[in-house]
């Protein structure tokens, strides 16, 4: 059985990983003051977007996901022919309409695919499952990466489904902005109180950075750390400690709002990389997608792991 994997461009994974596993991306359009940018996880275009955003100091962006009709067209024109079964993993539904759009499109796809496959002499039925990853950005990437691993190991649909259900309950994502202005602007626009005005004012004045955790579909501020580089170092050491305690899934994802080489050169990241090698855990580092970037700003860092123990960042 040919099993396909679809996600949206909120998913932070390296481009070479996406290509290797033939993961299909649902693009997201970013509307800014000087036009639009279509985020399809192109590394060069993403870095240019961050560079432009940092130079212009722009904070006012809107994102627009694929419509129900666009998703339906993608599946019926291509995916029902390329695959016999598809798993679609979206950014958490409390943050975007992508899950709802995919769910609505799935109803039409399942009722309309048969003549298309029959014309191509494909006799097997087509199946489609849509899942809310219950997470965002690097943590959404972890869920997708783990499903890609199971597909490559030729796991059955039922095995993959059960694993996704556990992953969505154990994957924990952490975000640290380099600058609070973008995070607060977007949080206010969406009614998110994770970073209030007082926290923003004090944080900006004292260089105190919040660490935002995303877990089971909710976002909360779990720590405040003085200095961005100090905070990132603590975040990597924290992930290393969780790794050594034991993870639910053998993957850690890291994303950066800019050139990932910046993170690669950090000593704490190198320590985490060595720990992952020692424990046979894959460490995936890639560009933070523009959807993440317009929410927490250029230069931000995302990190994710899956653990059956709710991790507490001191």
TrEMBL record:
Coiled coil: none annotated. It holds the Pfam family DegV. The keyword RNA-binding does not apply. One of its GO terms (molecular function) is lipid binding. InterPro entries: DegV (IPR003797), DegV_C (IPR043168), DegV_domain_contain (IPR050270). Keywords: Lipid-binding. It comes from the Bacteria. PANTHER family: DEGV DOMAIN-CONTAINING PROTEIN DR_1986-RELATED, FATTY ACID-BINDING PROTEIN TM_1468. NCBIfam families: DegV. This is DegV family EDD domain-containing protein. It comes from Iodobacter ciconiae.
């Amino acid at each position: 059985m040919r099993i396909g994997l679809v996600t949206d461009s909120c998913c932070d994974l390296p481009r070479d990983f996406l290509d290797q596993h033939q993961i299909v991306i649902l693009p997201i359009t970013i509307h800014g003051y000087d036009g639009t940018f279509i985020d399809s996880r192109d590394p060069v275009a993403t870095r240019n977007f961050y560079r432009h955003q940092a130079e212009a100091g722009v904070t006012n962006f809107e994102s627009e996901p694929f419509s129900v009709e666009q998703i339906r067209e993608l599946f019926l024109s291509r995916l029902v022919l390329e695959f016999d079964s598809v798993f679609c993993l979206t950014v958490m539904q409390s943050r975007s309409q992508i899950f709802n759009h995919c769910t609505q499109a799935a109803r039409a796809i399942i009722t309309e695919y048969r003549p298309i496959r029959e014309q191509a002499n494909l006799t097997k039925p087509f199946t489609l499952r849509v899942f809310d990853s219950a997470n965002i950005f690097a943590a959404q990437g972890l869920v997708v990466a783990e499903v890609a691993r199971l597909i490559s190991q030729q796991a059955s649909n039922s095995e993959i489904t059960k694993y996704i259900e556990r992953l969505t309950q154990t994957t924990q994502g952490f975000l640290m902005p380099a600058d609070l202005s973008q995070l607060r602007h977007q949080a206010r626009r969406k009614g998110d109180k994770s970073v209030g005005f007082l926290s923003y004012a004090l944080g900006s004045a004292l260089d105190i950075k919040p660490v935002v955790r995303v877990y089971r579909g909710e976002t909360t501020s779990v720590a405040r750390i003085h200095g961005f580089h100090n905070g990132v170092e603590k975040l990597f050491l924290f992930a290393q400690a969780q790794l050594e305690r034991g993870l639910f899934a053998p993957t850690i994802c890291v994303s950066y709002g800019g050139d990932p080489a910046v993170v690669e050169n950090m000593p704490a990241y190198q320590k985490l990389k060595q720990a992952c090698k020692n424990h046979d855990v894959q460490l995936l580092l890639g560009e933070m997608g523009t959807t993440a970037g317009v929410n927490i700003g250029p230069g931000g860092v995302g990190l994710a792991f899956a653990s059956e123990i709710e991790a507490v960042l001191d």
